[in-house]
Amino acid sequence: MLTQIIAHRGSKGTRPENTLPAFLAALQDGADGIETDVHLSKDGQLIIMHDERVDRTTDGTGRIVDLTLAELKQLDAGAKFDPVYAGTRVPTLDEVVQLLIDQKFTGIFNLEIKTNKIHYDGIETLVADYFNHHHVPFKLVYSSFYGKSIERLHALQPEAEFDSLFQAKFQTAKRLHAEHVIIGYHPDIRWVRRHWLLLPKVQLRPWTVNTERDMKFCFRHRFAGLITDYPGLAHRLRLKMQGG
């Protein structure tokens, strides 16, 4: 089994994160999967962005939950990364899904539900309803730092795959695995390096694996996957170490 290469917010190291150019570049770089994050706008639209606020990655200010889709679409999500991407817009979940369908993507789509800081009311139902009404050719994987979101989505869409995100404390992940809600862990690579020999036999996809040293560590131990800002580099290293 090859270690799957999952592009963190798209090809985040080479394109404006969580934008359509970043996701397209990840596919062109040979990524097996796409990892991204979903929030809820003021008018109940599913918005793709990592932070709860728009300040870091766009030319706007404020929280996503306080802005409408129309207001979010006025923001520039590319110029801060590089002026060449000026005019790049904040995408919706549907726009990302349609891009992947257009590109005939059949890999992993890892959607993180961003409810660990703001508990968006009803976001799990909206996400589940979306995918229950849209046939997609790729494998849907849900993850979250907030265990209740995983449990809610599991009840709504039990056929999907679920994995637990964590940085250091993994008690919730351990419980959800024991209850057969999740099948794998998505831990911080620094935590993995300290603890992986003590872990139960679970599917591991560490984040954020950006150095050659950490990539080689994951490939050497044939983890299920790795989540990286540089899928192109990871793909080249995997060819050398795993042959595919």
From TrEMBL:
<protein>
    <submittedName>
        <fullName>Glycerophosphodiester phosphodiesterase</fullName>
    </submittedName>
</protein>
<dbReference type="GO" id="GO:0008081">
    <property type="term" value="F:phosphoric diester hydrolase activity"/>
</dbReference>
<dbReference type="InterPro" id="IPR017946">
    <property type="entry name" value="PLC-like_Pdiesterase_TIM-brl"/>
</dbReference>
<dbReference type="Pfam" id="PF03009">
    <property type="entry name" value="GDPD"/>
</dbReference>
<feature type="domain" description="GP-PDE">
    <location>
        <begin position="3"/>
        <end position="238"/>
    </location>
</feature>
<dbReference type="GO" id="GO:0006629">
    <property type="term" value="P:lipid metabolic process"/>
</dbReference>
<dbReference type="InterPro" id="IPR030395">
    <property type="entry name" value="GP_PDE_dom"/>
</dbReference>
